[in-house]
Every structure is written in structure tokens, then in C-alpha cells.
């Protein structure tokens, strides 16, 4: 679960809505994933392309199981589940402007989810494919079926500082990384099915990318995949693509019918929001988590650079601040603070004014956005930054029913219905007998 979004051209990633619909078929878990993306390019972007990484196998018989929804927000089932549940309020689609709008409750922690926030964007002409350089090699496709899938979004020409939005539907051919199945035997004679539990995970975007690259590197050790794995890694790394993480990330996990999700609350860069029954559903529930760089800025290089610069602007004018003072004031990891301060100094955003104390102050009065992006792109910072991330581990618990059990269930249902109607008929005959007796006695 989760996608990583990579690009060489910078953009502001405002919102990512991740809605995962789980289904149980026989004794297999299946998923359908919806991703609502809201972004704003920071410069004119000709032939805009975004590379995506999924932790699952998305290719079946040579076909990529990813599609773009042309008119999201029209009030269908997905819209109602995503935006009438939990912190979501509503969504809409405007045909005149061809734009998608959502409204969700805002707040930077669970206690402040109150004021609605609105995200809106024009839907671009979107095409989706596996990059041609990779799709032409059957060994590469086979390697990706074991490690996860790369695919590319082509969005046409995008204008700077203009809001765009789109919805992706991902239906994995095979979920990778599933935990072992744990069968619990039936407890009563009338319970025809065993209880099945299976573990899954939702990863943060950076973990998803690193896991993918790690699995591809392992594939290099297999003789049949050596060249394919090398080509996949080269494709990602040679293009100098940056990972972009959303300022706000909303995750909604919808359970299979008649199931329970035993969730855990990870002690990391994501918070547990709540669980909600779905109206009009067959005992489904929605489980919600939330995160993003706006709330967890210390785990994101560009956001940390901006926060350090803003702190120095406010507090270092009269008395320049040392790295130790910045670390203590912002309550961040000192190694990360030191890396980012050095990177800010290298691009001229801050200056070392007291070498003896190692104290810094800012340069200029306006936030140097280009400098923040340069710090985030700094290879040394990216390789040495100590980030936390998150992995939401959970288990789906549901009743597994085979074909023989289905026949038995149908018989039990029929028998119970037959018994019910006999009881109704008996009651009616009793009432009729009483009425006839009273009438005859008159």
C-alpha cells in the first residue's frame, strides 16, 4: 500500500488522499486503491512526467492495472466512502472548469481536526504507462513482479503556480509482502468456516521507494535477473529523480465485509485518527490515519530547512545561533540540524557570523524557496539525513468459507427461513381458530 512520487521538476505536493478498499475472495485478500493527488508546479512544466513506485505487482498479462478516473467527485461510491467518512466532508466535480474539489477537516494533530480545508485543481490530460525503456524487456517486467512496479504519469504541459488534481485507481494483480496466514479453527458446530488472519502494512512514500530499491538490488544476485535489476536501478538513479512527499496525507483503509482490522498505532510520523462504520454497507468499517510533511516537518529535508531559516530570521538577528541552540529550540535530531545548516550555508541562505562560537544568522528577509529546494536535492544531505518515516502494521481477521461451507450455509439459511414460516403459519392458524370459535359461540 502507498505510492512513491518522483520527479526531476519541482512541484508543491499539497494533498494526497489514499483510500484502500480491501476484499476477501476465497482465502485471498485483494485490494483496490484510490489516490487523489493535488499539486502545483513551481515553474512552467513542459511534457510533465512523474514516476511512481508501487510496492505491489501491477502488471497482468502485459497490461498495467492502473487507470485515471476522468471525472472524480461526481458522488459515486468511492466519493461517498472517502469524503463522507471520518475527517472528510464532501467532494465535487465542475464540468465547466474540468476541476476536482474536496473539503476535509484540517488540523495538525487529532485534537484540532475542526476547520475545513479546501483543495481544488484542474484535471490535466493524463496518460499512464510503464516507461518504454523498461516495458520492452520481459526480464525487467518479471523482476518487477517480485519487487514492485514502476510506472509513469504523463500530464502534458503544466503552468507554473496553477493547481492541478487527478485520481488514480490501482488494482494490484498481486499483493506483495503479505504476512503469513493464521487459521483459527471453528469453535461451534454451526460455524462452517475457519477464521483467517493475515498481516499487511502501509508504508510511507520514502520507505516504499527504499524497499523497492532494496528488493531490486537483491534481484541482482540472481543470475537471470542481473541485467534487468541493473537497468531498473539505473533508470531511477541516473535520472536524478527526487521523491516528493505530500504536505498532507490522508489514509483511509476500508475493511472487507464482515471482517475486523486489528490496527496498531505506529509511534512515528503518522497519527491514528479513528474508526468509523460505513453507512449502508455490509458491516464494513473505515480506519483512518493521517500524516504529511506539514505536521512532521522534522522528518522532511526541505521542510526542516525552511523551519530552521524561519527560526534564525526571528531569533538570530540580535544574537546569532549555534547549531546546538537551533537543535534545542526546535527539538530535532542534532545530526539532521547540522547537515541542513551546512547545506543552507553552502547555498547562501544563512551565514556563519561567529566562527569561534559557530553561530549563524539568515541572509535576506524573504524565504529563499530555491535554496530550500537546493538543500533537499543535496546528495550528501539526502544520503546522511536520519529520517524516521512510518509503517502501519495491521491484520485483517475474517471468516474463510469454502464451496462446501457455502452449500451448508445456504441449507442453514433455507432451514431457518422454512422454520420461520412454519411458525408464522402456526400463529396465524391459532388466531384464525380463536376468531372462528368466538364467532361460532355467538
Structure explained in plain terms:
The protein has 442 residues and is of the alpha+beta class. The chain folds into 2 domains: 292 residues, no CATH class; 86 residues, Winged helix-like DNA-binding domain superfamily/Winged helix DNA-binding domain (Arc Repressor Mutant, subunit A). It is 31% helix and 35% strand. It has 11 helices and 24 strands. The N and C termini lie far apart (77 Å). The relative contact order is 0.14.
Summarize the structure.
By secondary structure, this protein is of the alpha+beta class. It has helices spanning 77-83, 132-135, 138-147, 205-219, 226-238, 301-315, 323-330, 334-346, 369-377, 379-384, 403-441, and strands spanning 4-7, 11-25, 28-41, 45-54, 59-60, 63-64, 66-69, 88-94, 99-105, 116-122, 127-129, 149-158, 164-170, 181-184, 194-203, 242-244, 248-254, 259-263, 271-277, 285-291, 321-322, 350-354, 359-362, 391-400.
